[in-house]
Write a structure and sequence with these properties.
Chain lengths: ~280, ~450
Amino acid sequence: MARQPMSYKTKNRLEIAAMYLVIAVMTVIIFYPLIWAFGMSLNPGTNLYGASIIPENASFVHYEWLFTSPRSNYLLWYRNTIFVAVSVSLLGTLITSFTAYAFSRYRFRGRTYGLYAFLLLQMFPVLMAMVALYILLNTIGLLDSLTGLILIYIGNTIPMNAFLVKGYIDTLPRELDESAKMDGAGHFRIFFQILLPLTKPILSVVALFNFMNPFMDFILPRIVLRSPENYTLALGLFNFVNDQFSNNFTRFAAGAILIAVPIATVYLFLQKYLISGLASGATKG
Amino acid sequence: MATKNDQETNKNRQDNQNSNHNPTLAMLLSIIPGLGQAYNKRYLKGAAIFVLFAAFAIVMFDFMSDGLQGLFTLGTEERVDDSRVFLSEGILSLIFLTFYLIFYWVNLQDARRDAIKIKNGWQVGGVMAGFKNAWDTAFPYMLVGPGLMFLIFVVLFPLLFMGFLAFTNYNLYNSPPRHLLDWVGFDNFINLFTIAEWRNTFMSVLSWTLVWTFFATTLAIGLAMFLAVLTNDKRLKGKKIIRTIFILPWAVPGFVTIIIFSAMFNDNFGAINTDILQPLFGTSIPWLTDPTWTRIALIMIQTWLGFPFVFALFTGVLQGISSDWYEAADMDGATRMQKFRHITFPHLMFATGPLLITQYTFNFNNFNIIYLFNEGGPAVRGQTAGGTDILISWIYDLTFTNSQYSMAAAISLILGMIVATFAFVQFRRSRSFKEEGTF
């Protein structure tokens, strides 16, 4: 009986050690590919073969190449992506908030059908209709243009986000806008001056999602964009490895790290809001 | 005829009470849009409606009749007519026609409702009141309008186009503008299930899609649950840093990590083989050339990519579980396993159930990882799909590599059915949908 506390203590220690071991193993598994990619980006060669995670003659030539070489479109791609991201973020969020406001606050004829339509249409993956999108953009002359890409992004972000925002507006007390109406405020004033400031938290999540998406999506740009000077970052980087796989991996790694670091930083800082946004979007659907 | 009627009833109306005002007549008059509104003494509104409908009819009539006709024939002259243009104009005409009919119906209903109100003694207000009223009614539609337009042209239209395409014979050998397309009914679907090559490919792709969805998602959820419970332990220090590390794979853009993994798993000079397996075990594994190994690699990578988000969700839930539960369980002498099974697990599932289902649907259509890792490969002899192609990536291959547009569309339709059924069942169960039903 006297040994009981001792063994309990040892057991306790062993358990804690085991937990830290698991965490250590997971940390290695998580960091290994990321550090490996960083190591690759420092290899001066362009080939995977002979490259190592800790290169003997580490250098930043690939980073330099991306920014200074006349043959590099990296900065152009950055500009394109930011242009697309800002447009989608602004327009998409504005239209989303209009739609959500109407569905949440007005009882108009056809409202239920509208909600069903939004629900139904958001279920289908964009990719399913890619042939049609391609042909459609081709017909109206928006193929290989950033405008076409922006329009498709906006169209695809609306249904899902509209529900997210609608769910949020639903939780705001109706007395707010009703009393404003009593005071003679018009529809637009109620929206812009009373509801919009209150919906800021969820709208910023939506805006951020809309902003980040063009940085990470490569498949839609791949279908829509043709000429390298119109590429977005993701597509441009993808083509580094897609054209001749082993030849340009180190360059890809350099370019990828330059976008992964800022994005990951934003995500880690805002994780709480982003995750709760994603979560409420799915449960309140 | 109609105008004469109109005048007569108007005269009657002045002699008699409003009870003589006939809603059915108002509705019938509105067969010519605006006339019923005029009968209701709302002349300005009537005129506006008439002008709008007339303008729409005049402007769109040619386009729509040509479009609908084209949808039927899909073009008549080879090399001159492009069936794809005919198809898309036909679908646009269908959409416009639907709009027209809806507005027409609204116009009829509007005439009827106003007439009923007048019959019950309602006085038609002045022009200003009419404007105010119209503005109030129209406002929500104006708000929804832009979103709906985007939805119709960017989401609905392409989906309809794809749906129609599934019933044509658009493939490599019969492609516009060189050839005309024809309607072939359900031939594509019949071929998919009767021609052995198609059927076998479809079945093997479908079964791998299901296996992939199940394992990739379940493993990620399992790992997330294990780590969430582990890091929730009171005895652990540095929780904040540990959690940040565990969320990292979610924060790094997916396409970047998948391409990195694809290089690491490279058979000849990837780090997994050259740096880990060779030195430690003296062997290397054909990650990208053997279908089974590719599948295993894919599931492992998706677990790496997928667990952090679920981990974050679980951690949030765990922090919210009141410690009373566990204290009560300790009193009763419950083992750790019992506490997990009866307290932790039910809490996690209750709070995150619907979200976990979306994880499954996400992986079901997870095109990025399949395509970026190995483009669905390695190739399999005798079929158009690679060894790791899931339905959506197979559709992509059929479209952009093999030019089997119609078959790709047919499979897309089947995929759409699966997704829609699944999602619909889920949404019916979700909370807000039930609330929605009470309005």
